[in-house]
Amino acid sequence: MSKEGPSPVPGWISDADIQFLQALVGDVHDGLVVEVGVALGRTTAAIACGLAERGCRHVCIDTFKGGTDPRDPLNTLYQAGRGRFFRQAFEYNARALGVWNNIELIEAASPEVARLFEDESIDVCFLDADHSHEAITADIAAWWPKIKPGGFLAGDDYPGPGVRPAVDELVKREGVPATYGFRCWAAERS
What we know:
The chain has helices at 15-25, 42-48, 73-96, 110-114, 133-143, 163-174; strands spanning 32-36, 57-61, 103-106, 122-127, 147-155, 178-180, 185-188. It is built from 6 helices and 7 strands. Strands 3-2-1-4-5-7-6 form a 7-stranded mixed β-sheet, sandwiched between helices. α5 packs parallel to α6. The protein is of the alpha/beta class.
């Protein structure tokens, strides 16, 4: 798989936003990239290649149990007992693309996992888990202190009714610059 370009794994993030994310992680060397919410691994596949060669650690976090946002169609699948399928598909895709040995998978809730990381230790953290306003607000609160100065807290589904207000609150409260892709967002820690 090439280091840049579309991800061969099916999923919901657009190719344009994959490029946006690849640009965020492209300059990370000897650093730490955290991905919260992996589903089938489309985003993981797009950013994992090249991280190990640059001395980076790539941590993937997912409960594989779905979220609480009733508008998210994935939650219907998770609640129907398909979470195990997503976990198996994620591992299969990561192995097939040769990135399985370059990632660390933690199956747990995001805010609890954030406590395992030191403040200002993460170069890029990408949030794409539960899209409810309460959950994304909790994720932002848990992960923002973990971002290094000059690093990025980013995520998907910015236009969503739960995500947009939470991101806008972060940008306003912290007074930080933000950039936007097609549906992605990134706030730079100063």
